[in-house]
Design brief:
CATH superfamily of the largest domain: Metal-dependent hydrolases
Largest sheet: 9 strands, parallel
Bound molecules: zinc ion
CATH class of the largest domain: Alpha Beta
Radius of gyration: 21 Å
Shape: globular
CATH architecture of the largest domain: Alpha-Beta Barrel
Number of helices: 18
Number of domains: 2
Length: about 450
């Protein structure tokens, strides 16, 4: 399992996209976690702002006139310009947990997580034994993701190796920064999705060789979750994760009480769910688990200490009745948190709709989701949760220039609300809160990847 040559070394930098691009609009990005309140040090806001992008990376940002003055005249003359007026220009939205093969299974029937998996999802994933279907699904998924303003995601494929090939090829074609991995499962109720250990190891190693570090793509070791992986397979996941210094790991944790019981049955003798993963050294700053709802104080503390991230997937949790993720409590404990759609248990690709659901879940536990925390989670918080903050998440100089343009007046209901300002909030806080609660993919005016525009489908 040792590798002498890392593909990362063969592809140190993405090749240049559009050489020089200027994007004007109302800039908003985060520099730090704002917590639950308006921390004016945590974000930057520029009403009449501009981003200058050179070779796909942020070269300057700030007030429009200042940025324009910064660009040498000979470069300015050949710069592609986009002026979005008062529309918001934000870093591309980041979905920290989703499943591309489930993109056509939204709103599939199921009583709860395990029933839904067995009844609807495993059969849907088994169909991707057909490579042609996998390619179609990957194209569809990425089209929809971009149409919703999401530019980076941590994505589960299926147990079929070619399902990762299909996704990575579709993402590479669009020059997207994406994480993806082959789902590892050897204890499944559907034999078509179970695999033997040797084949799994061979497939994963081949996929890592083929895709990890190629252009903007990264491989994430992807055991589905403890109930469907044998101890030997979790040990293999750990060995794969350690085989390169910069691989990622994604899985699920403590979504549903019946899942907790199934995990304990499969892995007896551990003190709790997280201890199963800890036993195999599957915690750490490049690891993200979806959900993390039903955890003890001990597990919460271990997550924080180990730097292991959680993907908060509120629309999925509401759809399956899995429970309410205690965001304020996990945040206060120091757990890194990102936002996830969890397509297809989530009911929408939209991070705006996910923020709406996150607010409902927060209110059910006694407090609203502040717009600061919400928009942080969907941008820099997501980049941090995935270990990608060195290249994504805000408009710091040198970062990759993926951004989304949002029109807060795109919807009649939102426009009417914004003409009726809150008497107690600042205009920016009020706008961001209304956008979070009432906005959706119809507010996405444009998406730029490495500066280059990609009109939503
Ligand atoms: Zn999931």
């Amino acid at each position: 399992m040792a590798h002498s040559l890392s593909p990362v070394a063969r592809h140190p930098d993405p090749p240049p996209a559009s050489p020089s691009v200027l994007i004007c609009g109302q800039l908003l990005d985060f520099l730090a976690d704002p917590g639950g309140v308006s921390d004016t040090e945590a974000y930057r806001h520029q009403v009449n702002g501009a981003l200058w992008i050179l070779d796909g990376r942020i070269a300057a940002q700030g007030a429009r006139e200042t940025v324009l003055a910064h660009i040498p005249a000979e470069i300015l003359a050949r710069t592609q310009r986009y002026d979005y007026g008062e529309h918001f220009v934000l870093p591309g939205l980041i979905d920290t947990h989703c499943h591309y093969p489930q993109a056509t299974a939204l709103a599939a029937p199921g009583k709860d997580l395990l029933d839904w998996l067995n009844r609807s999802i495993y059969p849907a994933e088994a169909k991707l034994a057909d490579p042609e279907l996998a390619a179609q699904r990957a194209e569809y998924f990425l089209e929809r993701l971009l149409a919703h303003g999401t530019t980076t995601a941590s994505v589960f494929a299926t147990a079929h190796a070619h399902s990762v090939d299909a996704f990575m090829a579709a993402a590479e074609k669009r020059r997207l920064r994406m994480l993806c991995g082959k789902v590892m499962m050897d204890c499944c109720t559907l034999p078509a999705l179970s695999e033997n250990l040797e084949a799994c190891a061979r497939d994963c190693n081949d996929l890592i060789d083929r895709w990890h570090g190629r252009d903007r793509l990264r491989y994430s070791v992807t055991p589905r979750f403890a109930p469907t992986s044998s101890p030997e397979q979790l040990a293999l996941a750990a060995a794969l994760l350690r085989s390169r210094a910069d691989l990622h790991l994604q899985s699920h944790l403590a979504e549903n009480p019946a899942e907790l019981a199934a995990a304990a049955l499969r892995h007896p003798g551990r003190r709790d769910y997280l201890d199963i993963y800890a036993q195999y050294d599957l915690l750490g700053p490049r690891t993200i688990y979806a959900h993390g709802i039903h955890l003890s104080a001990r597990e919460e503390a271990v997550l924080a200490e180990s730097g292991t991230a959680i993907a908060h997937c509120p629309s999925s949790n509401l759809f399956l009745g899995s429970g309410f993720f205690p965001l304020a409590r996990r945040h206060a404990a120091g757990v890194r948190i990102g936002l996830g759609s969890d397509i297809g248990a989530g009911t929408s690709f939209s991070m705006l709709r996910s923020l709406h659901a996150a607010h409902l879940v927060a209110q059910a536990q006694g407090g609203p989701l502040s717009p600061w925390q919400g928009w942080y989670l969907a941008t820099l918080g997501g980049a941090r949760a995935l270990g990608l903050e060195h290249c994504l998440g805000n408009f710091e100089i040198g970062k990759e220039a993926d951004c989304v343009v949002l029109d807060p007046f795109a919807l009649p209901e939102l426009a009417a609300r914004l003409r009726q300002r809150s008497a107690t909030e600042t205009p920016l806080a009020d706008t961001l809160f209304a956008l979070m609660l009432l906005g959706d993919e119809r507010c996405v005016r444009a998406v730029h990847i490495l500066g280059e525009v990609q009109q939503p489908a």
